[in-house]
Amino acid sequence: MNAFDGMITGFQVALSWEGILFVLIGVIVGTLIGMMPGLGPISAIAIMIPITYGMDPAPALVMMAGVYYGAVFGGSTSSILLNAPGISGTVATAFDGYPMAQQGKAGKALAIAAIASFFGGTVSVIMLMLLAPALSSVAISFGPPAYFALMLMGLTAISSLSEGSTIKAMIAAVAGVMVVTIGIDPQTGTQRFTFGNVNLFDGFDFLIIALGLFAIAEVCMLVLNRKNRSLSDDQKLGSLKVTRADLKEMSGPMTRQSFVGFILGVLPGAGATIASFISYIFEKRISKNPEEFGKGSIKGLAAPESSNNAATSGAFVPLLSLGIPGSGTTAVMLGAFLVLGVQPGPLLMTDRPEIFWGIIASMYLGNIFLLILNLPLIPYLAKILSIPRPLLISLVIMFSLIGVYSISFNVFDLYMLLVFGALGFAMRVFSFPAPPFILAFILGGMMEQAFRQSMTISNGNLAIFVNSPLPLSLILIALLSLVIPGLLKWRSRRKLANM
Amino acid sequence: MKKTMLTTILAASALVFAGCNSEESANESTGESGAFEPSKNIEMVAPAGAGGGWDTTAREVARVFGETGIIEKNMTVINKEGGGGAIAWAYIHGQDDSPYNLFVSSPPLMFVPLNGQSEYGHEDFTPLANMIADYGAFAVSADSEWEDLNDLFDQMKEDPESVTVVGTSSPGSMDHMQFVRIAKAAGVDPKKIKYVSDQDGGALTSVLNGSVDVFSTGVGEVVEQVRAGNIKVLGVTAEERMEGEILSDFPTAIEQGIDESFINWRGFFGPPNMDQAAVDYYEEKFKELSESEEFAEVRKKYGWNEMYLSSEEYEEFLNNEYKEIEVLLEEIGLGN
Amino acid sequence: MPLTINRRIALILFVIAAIYLFLSFQLPNYPYAPVDADVIPKGLGILMIILSIALFFSKAIETEAEKEKRNIPKKELLVLLAVFAMIFLYILLFEIIGFVIMTAIFIFFCSWFLGYTKWKSNIIVSILFPLGMYVIFVFALGISLPKGILPI
């Protein structure tokens, strides 16, 4: 069966009344859970598993898929409005989404996020449809050395993530990696910097850091500025009208980052969070006015939003075509398949084509539903910002506390949220940028593990990173991206001097 | 991506099937007559996030208990993730003699404390019953030149540096030690085994693309890949051939002349000082569950093997296992 | 050489890096990894020490905008401290007293403390928000939140 016949089968499933109904239920539940503090796709899927008991597998799985990408779609709302990411995949969304909302363009920011998500979701479904079987070889081509090189590539961008002092950005980044070394080291089982405290054995959850450094630190700033009136008094919430010029501006990043996000989603272990960061950096690096990033840039918002949604569909490639869950979320998704008596894997496409293609076809539908459902909601969501400052501050604090508590049900983590909140505030006050810290935290840990796995495999021989083409080319790209901007600067300076 | 994976898994530890409350473990004692009958909801802790083996077992057991009416009171599952189980174990340990707090566990209840990562181990809890058994599998890429375990182990004896084993957990834990146990019995120097841990879901990938050579994991993880012809299983740690399509094709280590096995047992425990009347009650109920048709269905669905052990048998089994693992860890210098 | 704010931060960072580095050297040895658990931390510690020295001797002068950022009146700092203290109390008590009651108390007092004077709407929000969250989490999603002393 080729992709075309497959899609016909798929649409027969997706466009049946059952298919439409369950896609709709899936995306609605997914969006709502995604908007809840701390609850992301994984809890959304796990919550829905018992509901599918005894259901026909095709509509049930179509619904579960809807829950998954719906949750990623919904996760951006609190990032944009409150600077409090509800899920880790939307931390980068806050970089430009929140400043935009603060400038009185909350409606527009939410609309751009919705459109970018829709675009990323749809483009990646097309790729999923055409390339799923072919891409399964990409999914398994990355070994530890290649992952190391990929993370290295991401880390070289640290300097571009901040303005002002490069030393301070570097300090923030090194501190981020220091924090990630806390916990039990997977390669040796050694406890590092845990002081024997069992709460530290697993290290810090990414969301604790993100909510602390962004949401709680922002709360502190709001407290200091609480006498400024709330936005609604002096500024309009802004229409959600996205102009043609806006669309034109976001079309480039959306298209590029849908591809980037999809490919990173395909790689086991990378996923939506890393994809959104890499896409953000990518766009900032190639942008003609990188100084706009972080201050409410449309590109800076569209890039991570299209990327994280594209990565979500990308994650279905190894799951559906190989039966390999590349992330915690797809691992739970795999569980949902098994409960329904469906084993994802290389044989799924031939054994159960109605499921394989039905899920893919339903994603087109789901993305359209998400856009149609979300756009009318935006004006109501944006009204959150017209809540008077003191009340809004209390509510954001609660949002962050519930978010962290529902991750682990561990009060210790709440204290840590407070600690990282204080750290985030101090960093703002003394002009240390937070994004390098977050980026280093997320890439640094994986980079260390990949490096040491590689070294064990090669018995300590560094040549493993240059012996095969994939890691070698990634490392070269990383080096070039460090050297080229410097060279360009040097050349233009010389030109100026010669004039 | 360790952190994101943890993030997502942790996020799901939120799950509880029905609204229940963890604080509610009053110290009601057993009835005057000496026989125990629960008078309120029972809390079942899965010491991990949603979706894993512990979680699935706990939820299926709770569901079948409810649906069959073997236990009439509600059994609610709560997830307590963290420290590879240590946080949940510390929590249960604090319940002292409550007959309403059970938890599900498996060999990590020994590995984690033996690696110095939990204050409490199996001897600190009251074993109620073991329910199922699972086994380890050693898989290699389909185009590997090794055809059986002996090929692999011969190569490891000759040139230990050329073979890397990958597992999901850290060294000294289950994936590592099940391999060490079988390899040692085959005459491989256990100190020369190269093991890497991949907790981000990349272990199978690394075997498929040739970065590493052997994948040490549970049999459930490999069946589909074997069916698709991507990998082959050189041996499993079961004592005799397993039943089932594909599964029955996997040769055991024992039939390849390596006299060693490893059982990934999974069973239920209560707090340290659980009353004997309550132990008897649960033991009986778990036995009934294990023999029920409904649970047989569940076992079939997940490919689990039946292995019921009563409280007493369980304790003895655990103590023997513990000693073996302790000696092995000591030998490779990871003992604590 | 005046002790500017950046120099003071550099000194603090130096001390933290030194402690981190010291702890890295205490990490136990694991016999089977060519790159052991202590290698990266040692590298990070040294890097941080170098960076803190670089920050200390860096010639960059604070811009006006940066100075403005850390110009916080003492009184405001106390307000912030009070908010942190309230969050701390919340965390300390909410598993015991229960989610709904503590959240209601927190929202009401925190908003009031920060200058929200419409006490009627304050009461309404502080009751409805926690109740709504509790209902959604516990009854709709089946995720337990501490109920504490309330018999829900």
Automatic annotation (TrEMBL), chain A:
Transmembrane segment boundaries: 20-46, 58-74, 110-132, 138-158, 165-184, 204-224, 259-282, 322-343, 355-378, 390-407, 414-442, 462-488
UniProt keyword annotations, A-Z: Membrane, Transmembrane, Transmembrane helix
Superkingdom, taxonomy of origin: Bacteria
Span of domain DUF112: 20-439
Pfam families, per the entry: TctA
InterPro entries tied to this protein: DUF112_TM (IPR002823)
Stated name of the protein: DUF112 domain-containing protein
UniProtKB/TrEMBL annotation, chain B:
Record flagged with keyword Protein transport: no
Gene3D superfamilies: Bordetella uptake gene, domain 1, Periplasmic binding protein-like II
Signal is among the record's keywords: yes
Membrane-traversing stretches: none
Superkingdom of the organism of origin: Bacteria
Position of the signal peptide: 1-18
Keywords, comma-separated and alphabetical: Signal
Family: Belongs to the UPF0065 (bug) family.
PANTHER family to which the protein is assigned, alphabetical: TRICARBOXYLATE-BINDING PROTEIN, UPF0065 PROTEIN YFLP
Protein name: Putative tricarboxylic transport membrane protein
From TrEMBL, chain C:
UniProt cross-references to InterPro entries, sorted A to Z: DUF1468 (IPR009936)
Coiled coil: none
Residue ranges of the TM segments: 9-27, 39-57, 77-93, 99-116, 123-145
Keywords: Membrane, Transmembrane, Transmembrane helix
Domain of life: Bacteria
Name of the featured protein: DUF1468 domain-containing protein
Pfam family, one: TctB
Segments forming domain DUF1468: 9-146
